[in-house]
Amino acid sequence: MGLAIALPVSLIVSSSSEANSEPASIEVYETTVLPLLEKHCYECHGDGYDKGKVAFDQLETPDQILAPELWVKVLVNTRAGLMPADKKPRLSAGEQATLERWIKRDVFRIDPKNPDPGRVTVRRLNRVEYRNTVRDLLGVDYNTEHEFPPDDTGYGFDNIGDALTTSPMLMEKYVAAAQAIINEAVPVMPRKPAEHRVAGTDFAGQNARSKWGKRQLLFSEPASVAASYKNDLPGSYRVKFDLQVNGTYTPDPGKARLVLKVDGKEVTSQEMVYHDEKDFEFESTHRWKPGEHTFSIELSPTVPSGGEKTTTDLFVDEVTVEGPLEAAQWVATTDYDKFFPRAVPQDREARRVYARELLGAFATRAYRRPLNDDTADRLAGLAEATYTQKGKSFEQGVAHAMAAVLASPRFLFKLEQPASHAVSAAVADVDEYSLASRLSYFLWSTMPDDELLQLAAKGDLRRNIPAQIARMLKDPRSESFARNFTGQWLQARDVEGIASNPRQIILRDAGEEETLRQLRQAWMKQDETTAKILADKIDRIVESKPDFDNDMRKAMRSETEMYFAYVMRENRPVTELIDSNYTFLNEELAKMYDITGVSGKDLRKVTLPEGSARGGVLTQGSALLVTSNPDRTSPVKRGLFVLNNFLGTPPPPPPANVPALEASESEFKDGHDPTLREVLKVHREAPMCRSCHNRMDPIGLAFENFNAIGAWRDTERKQPIAAEGNLITGETFTSVAQLKKILANDHREEFYRTLSTKLMTYATGRGMEYYDVETIDQIVKRLDDEDGKFGALLTGIVESAPFQKMRTQATVTAAN
Amino acid sequence: MSDTKVSKTPEQLASERHASFSRRRFLNGAGAAVALPAMASLMPRGAFAASTKATAPTRMAFVYIPNGAIPAAWWPAGEGGADFALSPTLAPLAKVQKSLQVISGLEDLSADPGPDGAGDHARAGATFLTGVRIKKTAGSDIHAGVSIDQVVANQIGHLTRFPSLELSCDVVRKSGECDSGYACAYEYNMAWRSHNEPLSPEHNPRFAFERLFGDGPVKQRVANLRRRQAEQNSILDYVLADAKSVNAKLDGRDRQKLDQYLTSVREIEQRIELTAKMKVQNPEIDAPAGVPVNYAEHVALMFDMLLLAFQTDSTRVATLLMAREGSNRPFADIGIASGHHDLTHHKNSPEIIAKVQEIDRWYVTRLAAFLEKMDATQDVDGQSLLHHSMIMYGSGNADGNRHTHDNLPIVVAGAGSGTFKTGRYVKVKPTPLTNMFLTMADGMGASAIEKHGDSTGRLSI
Asked: Which residues, listed in sequence order, are joined to residue A293 by a DSSP beta bridge?
């Protein structure tokens, strides 16, 4: 939980009946809190001690006593059992309650009946939300991950209003994207020639190969393939060959002559050279009678093989036949009616009215709320200014104005408004349209659908929340929620891109790093014979393990997403995110996990065998991979991952100038390659490292049976792995399975709180502040009361003040 | 491509063997760097953006390398001056040694921990061009400063179609949290337009190219650019009106967000106006295909884009992030399987130090290739493009192992049209890096700048 800037919160709630006046708060402090501190804390934080620069007896003025930053830490550390430290007795339940009550009411000045909703800085659509919104608005899949720069993140998420900015470059991209999207989505001709596609895979003949599901011809061998099409009407036809030249890696000298024929007559003949994914289009027009027509593609090598072999490919994407081209034979354009349901009027005024109607409806959906008066007029004016130009059609004018809508801040930003009724002078419900967008961007990462907008229009959304949540979770769009939340909370997004060297990792596990070093020396000495023997040995070791390729990475990411989606949709206890007897696997991933009986590419739910160490996200490939270095595991990163994302008690960052682990390896003078457990033990001997590493290392070391790509191993550097340890909070375990049980049971409340905090951050688009403590506590209590069911968490969040309400303008002004 | 050549490392072979898996996703690149056109065919005399005489403008670029450099291998021996031998790390620069300065003694003390504790990487990255302490925040109140490139661009940016260009070679970003409580924005952006507006860099060479010169076939490119911009004008008018109606209702931070939007829209409008007035220099080459999977090729292409932008006078101010500060990239093509950042904490193990040095030299090698091209490119006045440029290369970390921010590894290539005397190793007493920025800004003709960040004056060397 972030430390908040102590701004106007006291203004907001000080008027409530619950909060004490400042003198009264100090009095409660002195009579009930101070005695607790003296009893439990002064040994390190009073009487002349100021461990961690905290000394309670140095707090003198009311400002010092009532500063939230200090008490946030007190709250977190006492709740987690980290304070009092070193096996000193914890506060009794009654004492803890007294302390918490005072912190919440007197320091944080929280009124539990009317908590401060906080303020969310207006959020720009991030590139995921933009892509989904455009898909739902126009049916176009615009690849924003490719086209837009990555969004800046805050609090670990990419939907945080304060962190999202709009640079000139991004704005340029928005305008260009708007034009490209509308261009693709909106048909501007009511009728056009019929179009028929002949798939590349329909081409058959000599050396017709397949790759990536496409028809592939090689530059290195002669090929001749053909396909045919039968037309019914006489007339002119345009035939378009779509081909792609795609070479591997680096340019190669391969050349081949390409000959294209239509009905045996040559239409193109040209020499093709290396390109990397370059598309080619060849067009020709023909007069046809009704009947069968053949298209053939011939490729013959012109630079013969020998020397360096060419690996360039020619892919046959498709052949498009357009026609008859004569206007009388044109057919209705697909989807034209969707955008232009009526015939375009001829009269100027009627045209304007029609444009206004079309654009008003479109902008209402795109802006996700009713328009203010003049928007539709301005859009109609923009369209008119275009379609009255020479050579421009009515449809082109409307399309142009639609592009303007997509570049508008009202599309690009989630602009929110208070409902007309205020809860108090400082707080108001967000209006129903804002609520609809909050819900849809939270659970779907996209715009609200018609049902949400209709409920909002009637003012019925707020009272139908549970039913809407249930409906929204069933909808496939909720997969975005699983994907984006796990993608960032558990960094599953990084699985596909993170650097990893499976060879090195496998050799380390096998204790064969020395072989690799010898191989490198052999290369350097140009000793080819030795190199070959060593390389073969290494290949044998590496190839005995499942391939760690892109498909595997994708499967790992999907496993985590599907697992989360299952817990979400089936309303399972959230502790199953830590521990369960099932997971989601396909054949490849099952092989990696040593689980038999799973075949095929699709992932599905698999009940794990008795005693399996898997189950729960922590022992999934995704989490194990993203917490590893490129060449080895990192128990420290793994421990930190659990503390940060599951227990909510991140250790303070390391002091400056600490040595990294590899450093400690040099301490092992006997020449053996030490295990990480050995290395970390040396590292913890340094007093400056000990206090935090005692918290991280035991957790991380419990996962040492999983290597840096998530596979099980019994040895590291030929030494057996022992996964036992003690947590700083006292629990002992001998296996990762036991550790997971401890986390899911003994640390359940911390996990509830941490997950709630992460999910609230994601749901609201802002970091959690000290005044949110009560909101989170209420959600945790709800989870506790409802057996940790995911639904309790979700409903708790959606019904919370930060999700439902906003500070009113007056307060916002005061806060800035 | 043959597997029997002995010169290849096992990692190279492995990566080739596994190439087919990733190529669909990653490989869009043109293989190697683009073949840049010769100056003559590209740039007729007097065809410069806004200059009427055939005097060449001065350009400025900042190139960032992460995690500092091993000092012992970076610094040349001796007492400095014109007669110096390049150090092992800088040796690849031999061909352009006469056109550069190695400068020691510069520091970025805003990156020191001070009261903020850990997070030296985030700080080194975000203070490097801003020279101010950055606020430790995970997101709500990001606060750095305006970076020097933007300060200069604010003064002279109107002379070219692009006030500045921001480039990066980081394709993938890390999810979740970044360095020790600092928002990721601090690490992934070099250029800051205001204290809380980082300018996200472009990492795709094709997009960088098309942004500069338009898209489509070579001959139609400029026409495409102009046509598209003409269409955009009325869109921009509409959204400006929309933004104003929204903005009137907003306050505080919400208003700032909309103001950013408005400023960006206006900047595009200005660019459209400039493009209409100026001749767009169209390099007679195909645009790069996309982001090459090979990092060396990617870096080379981004340098090419930088060179093209300068050569065509599309901009005079640029930043290029070779990799974000704290980058943990492994360098498989030179046999280094561990991550760069992990390795920099070497605790004096000679074996590990040697690897870090290799990485340091790997980066310098890319720089050298760029500088050699800059040197071989003739500017309108017959001098080299490099002569008219100031390319500052370096890191906000000095010793990556100890996270020091004094005596930063800095090379400045190019004379800045006479701003600097090149071909020497200059040792200055500890001086804020920002002092040199002021000198560079003067060289750019942005002379009214009194102070930048923690500057204490101008660096006269």
From this structure: A229
For tokens 């829209």, the residue is B265
> In the predicted model, is pLDDT for residue A507 greater than 60?
yes
Query: b/e per residue, A691-716, with b = 16+ CB within 10 A?
Result: ebbebbbbbbbbbbbbbbbbbbbeeb
Backbone angles phi, psi at A316, to 5 degrees: -95, 105
Q: Return residues 384-443 of A near B (CB < 8 Å).
A: 385-386, 400-401, 403-404, 407-410, 412-413, 415
- Partners of A288 in the beta sheet? A235
Answer whether A382 sits within 8 Å of B23, measured CB to CB: no
pLDDT of residue A305: 54
DSSP for residue A616? S
- CA–CA gap between residue A696 and residue A489 (Å, rounded): 18
Cα–Cα distance measured from residue A587 to residue A574, given in angstroms and rounded to the nearest whole number: 27
Smallest CA-to-CA distance from B90 within B334, B354, B361 is with: B361
Q: By the CB < 8 Å criterion, does B31 face chain A?
A: yes
- Residue identified by tokens 């707090």 is A59
Task: Report how far residue A699's alpha carbon sits from residue A722's, in angstroms, rounded to the nearest whole number.
Answer: 13
Question: Which residues, including other chains, have CB under 8 Å from residue A523's CB and lie 6 or more apart?
Answer: A531, B6, B7, B8, B9, B10
Match 């870090």 to its residue by tokens. B356
Quick check: A158 and A470 in contact, CB under 8 A?
no
- Residue A666: what pLDDT? 58
B339·A519 Cβ contact <8 A? no
Number of CB pairs, chain A paired with chain B, less than 8 A apart: 309
pLDDT tens column, B284-313: 888 888 888 889 999 999 999 999 999 999
Residue B16's pLDDT band, with cuts at 50, 70 and 90, is very low
Q: What is the pLDDT of residues A171-185, one digit of tens each?
A: 999 999 999 999 999
Amino acid (one-letter) located at A278: K
From CA A327, how far away is CA A323, in angstroms rounded?
A: 10
Cα(A178)–Cα(B268) distance, integer angstroms? 15
Side chain identity, residue A305: S
Which residues are CB-contacts of A605 (< 8 A; sequence separation ≥ 6)?
A562, A566, A582, A583, A584
The span from the CA of A466 to the CA of A479, in Å, is 19
Which residue carries 């049209």 as its tokens?
Answer: B417
Q: Which pLDDT does position B45 carry in this prediction?
A: 39
Position B26 scores a pLDDT of 26
Rounded to whole angstroms, the Cα distance separating A364 from A811 reads 29
Q: Which of B246, B329, B403 sits opposite A410 (nearest CB)?
A: B246
What are the chain B neighbours of A160 within 8 Å (beta carbons)?
139-140
Calpha distance A118→A107 (Å, rounded): 16
pLDDT, tens only, A80-94: 888 888 778 888 999
Q: Which two tokens stand for residue A524?
A: 């350097």
Distance from CA of A389 to the nearest CA of B (A): 12
Residues A135 and A153: their CA atoms lie apart, in Å, by: 23
Distance, CA of B287 to CA of B284 (rounded, Å) = 9
Contact B31 A250 (CB under 8 A): yes
The ipTM of this complex is 0.88
Transcribe A228-251 into DSSP letters: EEEESS-EEEEEEEEEEEE--SS-
B141 at interface of A, judged by CB pairs closer than 8 A: yes
Element (H, E) at A206: strand A204-206
> What's the pLDDT at A765?
97
Convert the pLDDT of each residue in A719-776 to its tens digit: 899 889 999 888 999 999 999 999 999 999 999 999 999 999 999 999 999 999 999 9
Chain B contacts in chain A segment 277-296 (CB below 8 A): 277-278
Determine which of A443-447, B19-23, B219-223, B376-380 has the lowest per-residue pLDDT on average: B19-23
Query: Rounded to whole angstroms, how far apart are CA atoms B188 and B184?
Result: 6
Give the number of other CB atoms < 10 A from CB of residue A327.
Answer: 9
